[in-house]
Structures are given as structure tokens and as C-alpha cells.
Amino acid sequence: MNFSKDEIVIKSLTNTLKTNKLSHAYLVICEDSLYSDEFILSFVKAIFCLENKNKEFFSCESCNNCRSINHGNYVDFYKLTSDTSIKKDEIQTLKSDLSVKSFYGKKIYWIKDIEKMTEQAANSLLKFLEEPEDDIIAILSCKNISAVLPTIISRCQQIKLVGQSEDREVTENEEMIKIVSEYVKRYSRKPHMANIYVLGLLKVKEEILDFFKYLSIKTTNSYYESNRYDIVNISKVQEKVLLALSDLNANVNATLVLEKFLFTVLLDKINLEFLLRG
């Protein structure tokens, strides 16, 4: 897994590993569970890896500790997850397991999707976090931090991840390419309906940024098969895309930026037929 988009986080954790100043509790926030799962496992292996002599965000993947973690049977690493909800008795069992002395000096427990905890379970965990032990590290992970008790959040060091798993990136890229292509097709028949189509789908800034990115790519690719008339329209589209991206970077409301782009393309009667050939 490539964690390059979270390089700042990795540098911070590397410094923590080198100075041996690990927090007693981490809260990992990420919309992509697959990505955050891999990140957390990499962090845990970096802590326990027998070959990580330089104490970096690194794991050899071949020592006994790394192999045991990968197979889910490392004695000092506990993972708690549930398809439905995490209950109080599961937290109590975890506490009991953690009370046994560590083999190698540290114990780490990971509670995945803590939004799924019942109120009783959350309160039980909170008591545990309020009285941390030196040799126990908690890692909690969630997609939606607003669903987590503020008292739990306040007792954890937050790690906000922005990266995505490759599978998710490919899927999302394919979906946005389809949206851009469909917009162009609809625009050639009923421009007003094309605008309604896009505005109905794209609601958040990240999606709107991707829309402009792929529209720009599609426009640029069309340049090489264009005629003189197409070039005029290509220039107009690229100019409006660049203006939209500039507004987004200036934190102008993303929906307003999208609306402005769509309706100025319509009002200026820009012909997008060249995109059907690109």
C-alpha cells in the first residue's frame, strides 16, 4: 500500500518512534477502511518489528513478529471488530486480556469502527482510557468522527488520513470519467438537462474538483484530433476550467463554482462536440 499522500503523518509517527514517545491512545480517522486498516497494521508492525533498528515507519515483513501480526496471531496485539455493534462485555473481555503481562514490553489493542460501540461499551472504554498504563497502546479507528463521544476523542491523539486504497481510487476515477462523458453526451442533446444531471450528482468539493480535473484531461486529449473550430472551443473550456479551479483553491463555495461553470458554458454557447470525439 502506498501511503505517500499521508507523508506528513508518517514523518510525525517516525519522530515519535525514534524518540520513544508513543501516545497511550490514537484515533485514526479515514473514510477508506481498507486504507486505514493497512496503515494501522503498518504502524503496529513498525512498533514490534525485530528488524526496525532505526525505529522508523518500517517493517521487514519477514521476522517472527511481522509474520505473526500479518497472520493475526501476535500475542501482544489485540483487534476488536464487529459487523453489528461493539458491546460492553467485549470491552470487558479485552480489558481482561490486556491485564496479562506483555511478552515483549508493550501491548497494543485496536478497536475498529468505534462508531459501532454501544453507549455502555463507550463508557467502559472511556474509563480504561482515563487511566492509561505505560505498556498499553490503544488504537481506535473510525470513518465518522462526529459519531464518536467527545470525551473519547479528547483522550486520543488524532491521526487524520487522506489517502485511499488503490482499488477505491480506480473505482472512483472510473465513476468520475463516466460522469464527465455522460455530461458531454447530454449537453450535445439537451444542455439544460446536462447541467441538472451534474448538479444532481456532485455535492462535495472533492467530487467537483475531480469533475474539473477529468474534464480538463478529456479536453486536452481532444486537442490532438481537433480542427480549427474545435481549438476555439477547447481554449474556452480550458479557460473556464482554470478559473473554476482557481476559485476552488480560494475556498469559494464549490457548488457555486460548479453552477457558474455549467451555466456560463451554456450562456456562451460553447460547442462541446469535440469532446465526443476525444
Automatic annotation (TrEMBL):
InterPro entries: DNA_Rep/Repair_Clamp_Loader (IPR050238), P-loop_NTPase (IPR027417). Pfam families: DNA_pol3_delta2. GO terms for biological process: DNA-templated DNA replication. It comes from the Bacteria. Coiled coil: none annotated. This is DNA polymerase III subunit delta.
